[in-house]
Amino acid sequence: MRKAIIAATMAALTVPTAVVTATPALAKQRHYHRTDNGIRYWRGDNGRYYCKKSDGTTGLLIGGVAGALIGRAIDGGRDKTVGTIVGAGAGALLGREIDRNSSRPARCR
């Protein structure tokens, strides 16, 4: 039974690797440029500049955790659930917006 589980796991890991390896050959290659602060951008076929921007996931997670901790500390009641939930929601929204809008080069606006 143990060998069957290991074989199934190896097969499951091998198939996605083969698909990911073949995918870049099908996609159009872009020539990326880099600004002084490390933002990557490229020029499209239509002459416009496009940036490789963050989708805000990191800011969402970090903001949610920080907001939950701050909300829990501010909430003075015996049951700190409300403060934790409200703080997590507000922190997640704020962290996502900060992460999405930080350090864009002027060309990509």
From TrEMBL:
Q: Specify the domain of life of the species encoding this protein.
A: Bacteria
Where in the sequence is the signal peptide annotated?
1-27
Gene Ontology cellular-component terms for this entry are: cell outer membrane
Keyword presence, RNA-binding: no
List each copy of the Glycine zipper 2TM domain by range. Answer: 59-98
Instruction: Tell me where it mainly resides.
Output: membrane
Q: How does it sit in the membrane?
A: Lipid-anchor
The UniProt entry, under Pfam families, shows:
Rick_17kDa_Anti
Location in the cell reads: Cell outer membrane
| Keywords, sorted A to Z | Lipoprotein, Signal
Can you tell me which family this protein belongs to? Belongs to the rickettsiale 17 kDa surface antigen family.
Q: What is this protein called?
A: 17 kDa surface antigen
